[in-house]
Design brief:
By secondary structure, this protein is mostly helical. It has seven helices and no strands. Helices cover about 80% and strands about 0% of the residues. The longest helix is centred in the middle third of the chain and has 44 residues. The protein starts with a helix and ends with a helix.
Length: about 170
């Protein structure tokens, strides 16, 4: 796959439709910066976006991935395979989101336990102090993990869920 070639093809398709990057970004639910990056070959859209783009521009997924038009039409079985791959990817992202939610709940519980121990003044007793220290460390770890994941991935996951829900309607 040649990202530059694919990006140029996306740009041609968009111009054939007579729409701007901003308009396409609004249709797909992404930023115009993402469209620009795709068209310049800096990065590639997620697979579910490729399916949406192919549907919107009425081209085959294989044409998008090759970066050129074809005269032959993608057969139904191949298209169903692509859809299965996208659904698998969707389920994987949803499961990841659930696991991340469980981690945040564990961090919240640890924070509550720490606050209770601190308010009750039990941290002066060695065993409770060790428990409180562990809970505080767990909270800090969850916060760091949350910052790392939410800074990049949660935005993509939320956008993916919106696209998935719109596709299932």
């Amino acid at each position: 796959m040649n990202q530059k070639k694919i990006g140029q093809f996306l740009k041609e398709l968009r111009k054939e439709k007579g729409i701007t990057q901003e308009q396409l970004a609004e249709i797909l639910g992404v930023t115009n910066r993402s469209i620009s990056r795709w068209e310049n070959g800096v990065n590639m859209p997620d697979f579910d976006f490729i399916m949406e783009i192919a549907k919107y521009f009425n081209v085959g997924i294989d044409e998008l991935l090759d970066g050129e038009r074809r005269t032959d039409i993608l057969d139904k079985k191949t298209e169903e395979t692509f859809i299965k791959v996208a659904d698998y990817s969707s389920n994987d992202k949803i499961n990841f989101s659930k696991r991340l939610g469980y981690i945040f709940i564990a961090g919240l519980i640890a924070l509550i336990i720490y606050i209770i121990l601190e308010i009750q003044g039990l941290t002066e007793i060695k065993i409770y102090d060790d428990i409180a220290s562990f809970m505080l460390g767990l909270v800090c770890g969850v916060l760091i993990l949350g910052i790392i994941y939410t800074s990049r991935y949660m935005i993509k996951i939320r956008a993916f869920k919106v696209r998935l829900l719109n596709r299932n309607k």
